[in-house]
């Protein structure tokens, strides 16, 4: 086949030119995204139960739902959280579960559970997580005004002017953005809504001239829907409609009432006004009340097109609405451009460095250009296959191409080197091209198969890791397969054309690609190989020392799920652990931000409950907030984190706070990073008397056992309970429903009905002006069935209670979690220490403990990865045994892998990295790459031995013949991925541990391949 293609240069050129043109065309159609578009197997059930305490919600609703949801198939993990008035349950399925079918099954189970839930519970929502749900960026809209520098600014955004801004943002800005074809949804939060509030005159209530029940009854009577009446008049008929609906504020004000036989309007006996609704949460940008719009793109939209269209739209907004300010935050498009740009630079720089190395080694002008052609041709054809396979350009697939660059060059180097060696032996140009390519086809196919053999098992990795790195494995496999095709079809033909008419003796001089016996590194290598063969005991001692050093380095390495990545922004989650109001929450955050020097580039606060539709859970109360801090550099961010942590320690020691990364696909796919160790304590009867005292003691024991390492707090809250006395209600003839209505009105939460306005719902509420619970109990009176006023203090008893603010549970039961920030090597000892705590050992408490956290999850993930390494090595053995037709020779090659771990671990240690998902994948990749040199050398030695050469002569001659291609392939591979070590951005930082593992393994593996592999072959043959 090679001869057939070599003698048809026009046909081969046209085929590759056509493939290259198709590849260039498809680059404009390939989807570009930050991460692969993976199907995330997470479903969340959101429960809304306004007014229900967390403990009651857990016992009567959440527990029932969890019991029913246990029947759902393929659930890997279940977690729930109950708060006052709301709760959520998260189901995380095994990777590969059809999420559409799982969603149907979850809905069926929720419907089934509704039969066992309280009747006043609204059916829970079932929300399916998706990678496309991550907003491209957030658009914050504010009014021009002051910021943190001025303490006179409005904190809550609960004014009439902000109400107008909210309405305009929802009715105009949102709709105009959603008209863009690239935008799937604009999710909003921070909106203010109106309500009509009715406050009866206190003197009329005190004199019994009017009652809340009379006002409520009058509103219901005047808001009745009487329907239509059809009247016939001769040959005509008419529809008569009774206009009895209350449709606006004036209708409510003019509602008639009977006041002692006299007809008055509601406005005569009560203050009726339309005011902003009391917010359960708000959004602020740099201290100013803001409306937040999360822009979510269509799954098939190109990020660059969306960014361009949105920028044009924002320019129009700024010109058309000068009374508003528009701010872009959490911009994923900038992160995408930065990461993709850095990876593109790594691709170019790595290719140029590899190309430069070939010029230095080859000392000839034509051959490097031949090898250099293989890089862009292989890349362009690879992009064509990307398009046909439905892959996208993202930081994972691009990093796979960068990894493949060095390996792409390897195939071309070996083919060109072998062709040139045949020319030096005196063969004709055509015969050299044919024989040189044919001779290395088998080892090249073996090297490609062995490399793919370590990547393919990554595709079958369980969980989201396998799904996320599918693109990387496919990119490397595609790049290698294409480069092999280019090396054995295109390059021999181009070599024949380029060297036509040039005498064989002048091809490259003897120092170029021939024997190269006068090159300095050949002499060094021969001396080194002779020393190894003469001093075998010392060599074996050095090998054993390397293995022992590998064990020591492995034990000293920190474990984590993902490598640390530098950030200039973070999310500060705060729970003040006090029943503070929303305004006080905002005021405290303002004080924190003002203390930062230098000031942040921007600050976004999301305090209390947020209104985002696609929020899968994590509901918050008025004492909780999330603060998004963006600084100018990672160093400034570290300084800000230390400053804020110090303020909490001084001013708010009881508050719970944590700094986390901003939302990204890794968090969505794998779940948010937990503390290194999480101890989950379970009790058979949570919530019973003494439960909170037991948890307080447990928290104290944990802090005493692990000083300065417990990062979580016992977040609780005090409850005021109003307990009614049924016998007193019966004695005083008070209707319980009337009592509940009066109490709701006292706290301004009695919604009589809702008016449907222009695209918004306006609740009509009856309320009082009482300031506290005790004020209500002492001053409120309830009218009984005989019209008598009965003091509320005689009907209810006020008491206090103490309970958890958030109740967390797993698949089986409720638990209390204590988080510890421990080095990975101390986790096992910490587990033993926790099991020895007095409360855990006290059988009377019934307390049990289970463990989780990032270290535990990382160890499980790494165990799976090293199982994959074992499978990969087994596949390598099968491939090599088939190539060499031997059961012993593959063992010579595979023994190199454990030796090369010394180079991997040493380089990771020197660069301050550790063992994580990326470095473990780097070890797998290294195992597939590094043995290629040994395969080539063993194949050459074996050929010479089978042809009758003595073993020592075969080792020395094969070493000289394969030294230059081995050095070149190793150096070009290292140079191709070395830009990862110096580039910034999420893509490069994510791949840096992988690159370190490959570079360290190949660097040390080259020495093993050149010196130790021949020694093993010699000992095995002897």
Helix percentage: 40-55%
Percentage of β-strand residues? 15-25%
Chain-averaged pLDDT: 80
Radius of gyration, in angstroms, nearest whole number: 37 Å
Distance between the termini: 39 Å
Please characterize this protein's 3D structure.
- The chain is of the alpha+beta class and 1022 residues long.
- It contains 33 helices and 29 strands.
- The strands form 7 sheets. Strands 5, 6, 13, 14, 15, 16, 17, 18 and 19 form a 9-stranded antiparallel sheet that branches. An 8-stranded antiparallel sheet has the order 4-1-3-2-27-28-20-29.
- A hairpin with a 4-residue loop joins strand 22 (750-756) and strand 23.
- Helix 3 packs across helix 4, helix 14 (429-459) packs antiparallel against helix 28 and helix 31 (917-946) packs antiparallel against helix 32.
- The longest helix has 37 residues, at 985-1021.
- The radius of gyration is 37 Å and the shape is elongated.
Write the layout of secondary structure elements.
Blueprint: H1 2-6, H2 9-27, E1 42-48, H3 54-69, E2 75-83, E3 86-93, H4 99-113, E4 125-128, E5 137-142, H5 160-178, E6 183-189, E7 194-200, H6 202-206, H7 212-222, E8 228-233, E9 236-241, H8 249-253, E10 256-259, E11 262-265, H9 266-269, E12 270-276, E13 281-285, E14 288-297, H10 303-320, E15 325-329, H11 332-362, H12 366-389, H13 395-424, H14 429-459, H15 463-468, H16 470-498, H17 520-534, H18 536-556, E16 569-575, H19 582-594, E17 602-608, E18 624-630, H20 634-651, E19 656-660, H21 665-670, E20 677-682, H22 691-705, E21 716-724, H23 726-731, H24 736-746, E22 750-756, E23 761-766, H25 773-779, E24 781-783, E25 789-791, E26 796-804, E27 807-809, E28 814-820, H26 827-835, H27 838-841, E29 848-852, H28 854-884, H29 889-894, H30 896-910, H31 917-946, H32 951-977, H33 985-1021
Parallel strand pairs: 7-23
Antiparallel strand pairs: 1-3, 1-4, 2-3, 2-27, 5-14, 5-15, 6-14, 7-12, 8-9, 10-11, 13-14, 13-17, 16-18, 16-19, 17-18, 20-28, 20-29, 21-26, 22-23, 24-25, 27-28
Helix pairs in contact: 2-12, 2-16, 3-4, 11-12, 11-13, 11-32, 11-33, 12-13, 12-16, 13-14, 13-16, 13-32, 13-33, 14-16, 14-28, 14-31, 17-32, 17-33, 18-30, 28-31, 30-31, 30-33, 31-32, 31-33, 32-33
């Amino acid at each position: 086949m090679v001869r057939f293609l070599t003698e048809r240069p026009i046909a081969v050129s046209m085929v590759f030119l056509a493939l290259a043109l198709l590849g260039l065309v498809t680059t404009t159609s390939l989807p570009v995204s930050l991460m692969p578009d993976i199907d995330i197997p997470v479903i969340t059930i959101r429960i809304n139960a306004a007014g229900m305490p967390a403990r009651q919600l857990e016992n009567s609703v959440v527990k029932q739902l969890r019991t029913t949801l246990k029947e759902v198939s393929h659930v890997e993990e279940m977690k729930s959280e109950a708060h006052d008035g709301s709760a959520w349950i998260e189901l995380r399925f095994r990777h590969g579960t059809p999420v559409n079918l799982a969603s149907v099954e979850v809905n069926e189970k929720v419907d089934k559970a509704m039969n066992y839930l309280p009747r006043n519970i609204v059916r829970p929502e079932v929300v399916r997580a998706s990678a496309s749900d991550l907003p491209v960026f957030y658009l914050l809209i504010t009014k021009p005004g002051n910021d943190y520098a001025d303490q006179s600014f409005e904190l809550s955004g609960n004014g009439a002017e902000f109400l107008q801004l909210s309405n305009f943002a929802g009715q105009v800005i949102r709709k105009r953005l959603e008209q863009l074809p690239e935008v799937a949804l604009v999710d909003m939060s921070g909106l203010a809504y109106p309500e009509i509030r009715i406050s009866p005159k206190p003197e009329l209530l005190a004199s019994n001239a009017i009652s809340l029940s009379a006002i409520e009854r009058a509103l219901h009577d005047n808001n009745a829907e009487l329907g239509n009446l059809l009247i016939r008049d001769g040959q005509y008929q008419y529809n008569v409609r009774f206009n009895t609906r209350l449709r606006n504020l004036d209708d409510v004000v003019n509602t008639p009432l009977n006041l002692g036989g006299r007809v008055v309007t509601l406005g005569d006996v009560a203050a009726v006004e339309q005011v902003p609704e009391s917010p359960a949460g708000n959004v602020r940008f740099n201290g100013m009340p803001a409306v937040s719009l999360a822009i979510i793109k269509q799954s098939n939209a190109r990020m660059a097109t969306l960014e361009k269209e949105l920028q044009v739209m924002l320019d129009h907004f700024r010109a058309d609405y000068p009374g508003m300010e528009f701010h872009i935050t959490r911009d994923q498009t900038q992160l995408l451009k930065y990461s993709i740009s850095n990876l593109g630079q790594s691709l170019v720089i790595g290719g140029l460095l590899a190309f430069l190395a070939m010029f230095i080694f080859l000392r000839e002008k034509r051959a490097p250009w031949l090898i250099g052609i293989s890089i862009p041709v292989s890349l362009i054809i690879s992009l064509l296959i990307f398009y046909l396979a439905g892959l996208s350009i993202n930081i994972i697939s691009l990093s796979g191409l960068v990894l493949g660059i060095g390996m792409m060059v390897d195939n071309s180097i070996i083919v060109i080197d072998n062709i040139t060696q045949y020319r030096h032996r005196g063969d004709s140009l055509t015969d050299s091209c044919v024989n040189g390519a044919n001779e290395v086809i088998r080892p090249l196919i073996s090297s490609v198969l062995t490399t793919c053999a370590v990547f393919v098992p990554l595709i079958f990795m369980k969980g989201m890791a396998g799904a996320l790195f599918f693109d990387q494995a496919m990119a490397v496999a595609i790049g290698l397969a294409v480069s092999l095709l280019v090396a054995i079809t295109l390059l021999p033909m181009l070599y024949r054309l380029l060297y036509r008419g040039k005498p064989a003796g002048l091809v490259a001089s003897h120092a170029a690609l021939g024997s190269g016996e006068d090159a300095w590194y050949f002499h060094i290598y021969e001396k080194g190989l002779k020393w190894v063969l003469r001093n075998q005991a010392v060599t074996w001692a050095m090998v054993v020392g390397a293995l022992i050093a590998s064990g020591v380095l492995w034990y000293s390495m920190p474990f984590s799920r993902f490598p640390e990545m530098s950030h200039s922004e973070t999310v500060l989650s705060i729970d003040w652990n006090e029943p503070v109001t929303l305004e006080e929450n905002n005021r405290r955050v303002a004080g924190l931000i003002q203390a930062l020097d230098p000031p942040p580039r921007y600050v976004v606060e999301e305090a209390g409950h947020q209104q985002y539709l696609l929020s899968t859970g994590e509901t918050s109360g008025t004492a909780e907030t999330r603060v998004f801090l963006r600084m100018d550099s990672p160093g400034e961010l570290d300084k800000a984190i230390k400053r804020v942590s110090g303020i909490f320690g001084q001013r708010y020691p009881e508050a719970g706070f944590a700094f986390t990364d901003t939302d990204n696909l890794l968090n969505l796919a794998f779940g948010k990073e937990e503390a290194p160790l999480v101890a989950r304590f379970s009790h058979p009867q949570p919530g019973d008397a003494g439960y909170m005292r037991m948890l307080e003691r447990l928290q104290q024991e944990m802090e005493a056992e692990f000083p300065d390492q417990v990062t979580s707090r016992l977040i609780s809250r005090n409850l005021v309970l109003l307990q009614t006395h049924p016998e007193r209600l019966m004695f005083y003839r008070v209707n319980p429903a009337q009592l509940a209505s009066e109490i709701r009105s006292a706290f301004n939460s009695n919604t009589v009905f809702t008016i449907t306005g222009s695209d918004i719902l306006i609740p009509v509420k009856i309320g009082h002006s009482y300031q506290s619970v005790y004020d209500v109990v002492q001053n409120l009176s309830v009218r009984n069935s005989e019209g008598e006023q009965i003091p509320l203090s005689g009907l209810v008893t006020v008491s206090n209670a103490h309970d958890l603010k958030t109740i967390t549970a797993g698949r089986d039961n409720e638990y209390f979690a204590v988080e510890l920030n421990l080095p990975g090597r101390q986790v096992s000892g910490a587990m033993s220490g926790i099991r020895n705590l007095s409360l855990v050992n006290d059988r009377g408490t019934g307390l049990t403990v289970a463990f989780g956290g990032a270290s535990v999850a990382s160890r499980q993930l790494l165990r799976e990865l090293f199982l994959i390494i074992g499978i990969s090595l087994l596949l390598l053995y099968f491939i090599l045994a088939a190539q060499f037709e031997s059961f012993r020779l593959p063992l010579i090659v595979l023994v190199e892998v454990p030796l090369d771990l010394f180079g991997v671990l040493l380089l990771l240690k020197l660069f301050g990295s550790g063992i994580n998902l990326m470095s473990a994948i780097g070890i797998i990749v290294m195992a597939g790459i590094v043995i290629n040199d040994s395969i080539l050398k063993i194949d050459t030695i074996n050929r010479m031995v089978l042809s009758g050469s003595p073993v020592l002569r075969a080792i020395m001659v094969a070493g000289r013949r394969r030294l230059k291609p081995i050095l070149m392939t190793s150096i070009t591979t290292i140079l191709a991925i070395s830009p990862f070590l110096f580039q910034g951005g999420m893509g490069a930082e994510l791949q840096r541990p992988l690159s370190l593992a490959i570079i360290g393994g190949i660097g040390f593996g080259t020495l093993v391949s050149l010196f130790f592999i021949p020694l093993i072959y010699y000992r095995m043959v002897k």
